[in-house]
Amino acid sequence: MNEKSLISLEKIATRDAYGKALVKLGGMNSDIVVLDADLSKSTKTADFAKVFPERFFNMGIAEQNLIGFSAGLAASGKVPFASTFAVFATGRAFEQIRNSVAYPKLNVKVAATHAGVSVGEDGASHQAIEDIALMRCLPNMSVFVPADAQETFQVIKKAAEWNGPVYIRMGRLAVPVLFDESYEFQIGKANVIREGKDAAVFAVGLMVQEALKAAEELSGLGMEIAVVNCASVKPLDQDTLIKVAKQTGAVVTAEEHNIIGGLGSAVAEVLMENYPVPMIRVGIKDTFGESGKPEELLEKYGLTSKEIIKAVQQVYHKKKNK
Amino acid sequence: MKIINRSLFGRGKKMTIIEEMARKIRVDIIEMLTAAKSGHPGGSLSAADILAVLYFQQMRIDPKNPHWPDRDRFVLSKGHAAPVLYAALAERGFFPREELIQLRKTGHFLQGHPDMKKVPGVDMSTGSLGQGISAAAGMALAGKMDHKEYRVYTLLGDGEIAEGLVWEAAMAAAHYQLDNLVAVLDYNGLQIDGRNEDVMNSSPIADKWRAFGWNVIEVNGHDLKQLMDAFELTKNCKGKPTMIIAKTIKGKGVSFMENQAGWHGNTPSPEQAEIALKELKGGMDHE
Predict the structure, then answer these.
(1) What b/e readout covers A262-289, taking b as 16+ CB neighbours within 10 angstroms?
(2) Best residue in A69, A81, A163 for a mutation probing chain B (most B CBs within 10 Å)
(3) Residue A70 has pLDDT above 90, yes or no
(4) How many structural domains is chain B composed of?
(5) Cβ neighbours of A84 in B, within 8 Å
(6) Which residue of A77, A118, A166, B56 lies most exposed, with the fewest beta carbons within 10 A?
(7) pLDDT of A102-143, one tens digit each?
(8) Of residues A66, A53, A81, the one with CA closest to residue A167
(9) Domain containing A112: what range?
(10) In which domain, by residue range, is B165 found?
(11) How confident is the model over A157-175, as a mean pLDDT?
């Protein structure tokens, strides 16, 4: 990540990048099939449906069956991408994912969009704030949360190549394209996208851009903050986490998800057992969202660079007073 | 390509062999459940004839090559009847019969409910009701996409069809015209808490499946000829999945278990097992 101003970057929603990635990968791998539950225009699987109609299956508004069919297709050698909103994929069909996908370790990619409060006007019923927690606790399941369009393409590509159940969390809101083609997403690897010695921010999704903004601003105040993109929430890159915690001695996590069970919890689990340092979780504070403009909701629920800066200053203070 | 194992036995002339296999499967069920001291005899015994016909007459399978891509698939949607499936698989040669008494033991591959990663011949992990038929339909869809000849069979319980997912799958299987999918309903009329109509009335069952766009065939689930005829008929039905409603008796073959809901999830004592085996083996030469 170079130091160019984040504001000038092109904005693309990760769901848009998902649709394009499917079309590209669909042309390369004829085993890829895509299923949706009547939300293909929103999840952008409609892009794939247009190019490969014979490999696209609309299951109607029936998420449990979306997953069940996907399991059967995977058991017969297909590489199914099952898409709907994150709330319905991981909530409505949780037990189908548990028993028909994760337990038999079938090659199903649950690729969900519309995660977090940045869904906006649809409100709390449609804003998944618990999906990372639900998917992370399932044995055999991998969880990836891309931060931008470039990373989304790589996540989808790696997920298709990986033999096993995967959950991919994407968003509705257009977000800055942070990475260029030289960026590499690797399963089980965290990316240190900015070096720093005073504190570290571990972030996922649209909070990665907020973490970078926070780091820029803190740099002006004389603090050097490391920013680590943890797109591979599971498997989590323990080595990098511990190394960065040792280098900085103060950690903040940032995610558009409940602070219970998400990235913050995952990082805390690793550091608590290996290298405890002062830590604060920035995220949704165990509350449901509501209707509103995405930007206003992100502000209201504390999902901003401002909140990250506050948290960094607090952990830094704790570190100094240890 | 040469089709191997189209069926183990020809139709009709070896009817007695299939009948004997059904009896052997029942004996295995009692023996393994008595050893396991937990499990589900009632709904396993009621499905023994159905599985005997499938595994010894209908299904194109190769016990030496359980992952053969062109094989017919079987998904035990009523996963708690795992003993009947394990017995059929063992008798068919997927693994040694001697393993059966290790059912439900720590560290052994025969899990309480079917695990496709552990048991040779199990095509889908099941146990959570309603999910098997959904996965089976997905397999049938894959077969259609690949222009494969294989058929996908799935067995449901009558209590199981209270699950909403069953009807989601039913709707989708008809929508995608999965005529290579054959579901069998083990219609024994009883579930854990009692009679279907008292617990949750699902009738009229045949009308419901017809209304969902399925070809429906009703048979006596203990009449081997009726079952064979029904499975043959499904092959002529184009554009629709088939539901074979097999009227069965829960606990069939063991007098004191027949039509008793209490034998859904209870296993026989050694003394009861002795009586049951005597009834089942009567005249049969079981090694």
Answers:
(1) bbbbbbbebbeeeeebbbbbbbbeeeeb
(2) A69
(3) yes
(4) 1
(5) none
(6) A77
(7) 999 999 999 999 999 999 999 999 999 999 999 999 999 999
(8) A81
(9) 11-176
(10) 15-281
(11) 98
Specify the number of domains making up chain A.
2
HSE toward the beta carbon, residue B262, CA cutoff 13 A: 4
ipTM beyond cut 0.90: yes
How far is Cα B199 from Cα B70, in angstroms, rounded to an integer? 40
Asked whether residue B19 is assigned to any structural domain, the reply reads: yes
Smallest Cβ–Cβ distance between B117 and the set A59, A96, A104 belongs to: A104
Same domain, A78 and A213: no
- Per-residue pLDDT of B188-204, as tens digits, reads 999 999 999 999 999 99
- Per the CB < 8 Å rule, is B134 touching A95? no
Of A65, A95, A99, the CB nearest to B168: A65
pLDDT at B83 over 70: yes
Q: What is the CATH number of the domain that holds A50?
A: 3.40.50.970
Residue B178 included in any domain? yes
Specify the CATH number for the domain of residue B276.
Answer: 3.40.50.970
Closest to B60 (Cα-Cα) out of B198, B193, B153, B185: B153
Residue B2 scores a pLDDT above 50: no
| Interchain CB contacts (distance < 8 Å): A and B | 105
Reply yes or no on whether A295 is catalytic: no
Query: Which one of A63, A210, A256, A307 is the catalytic residue?
Result: A63
pTM above the 0.80 mark?
yes
Contact yes or no for A174/A209 (Cβ under 8 A): no
B10 found inside a domain: no
Q: Which residues of chain B lie closer than 8 angstroms to A55, CB-CB?
A: 145
CB contact under 8 A, B165 and A96: yes
Best B139, B151, B160 residue to mutate vs chain A (most A CBs within 10 Å)? B139
pLDDT value for B144: 98
